[in-house]
Amino acid sequence: MAGMVLVSIAYLPPVEYFSVISRADEVLVEKEENYLKQTYRNRCYILSAHGPQLLSVPVYLGSLHKTPVKNIRIDYSKRWQQVHTGAMTASYNSSPYFEFYFNKIEKIILKNHEYLFDLNMELTNSLLDILKMKKTISYTTNFISVGDMEYDFRYKITPKEKSHFAFKKYFQVFNNGEGFVPGMSIIDLLFNMGPEAVDYIKA
Which of the four pLDDT bands, split at 50, 70 and 90, describes residue 64? Predict the structure, then answer.
């Protein structure tokens, strides 16, 4: 893959999200679509001692059924920041590279962004920086209808369907003796593999 890819925003996206980005020169992020519930746009999965754990950012949907993703506001009436950072610490504080990266991620989560879009993009840009993946990122200015475009991954990377991504095994602190657990957030790979994470993504 080369050229451009079109992706949605995502909260601490899964590994496959960054694998798609790694193979492109330019990343176009969807800003004009209507928000979709129960997607990676406001959730991720980490690997806890009890198996995969869902972390979800609560949002206000407003009175309209169709709200542009760029206008989705975060609901701070719920203590989600403490829940998320606490869960990450419990799951990964014994992983080899947790102490190298966690503080940077935690600071962004604790910033109290008003909009989900801004939180996600700051996290994604920070992760790209950690992974030393320099990409040109731009944003849609109008909604592009879903078609058969090969470079459109907005609705292909989703927790609602089984991924077609060819997951390769890597070391995980928690796998409950059941072997490798695929589909986790990029932070699972990063905390466990550190600088080798980018080689895994690009392989």
Answer: low
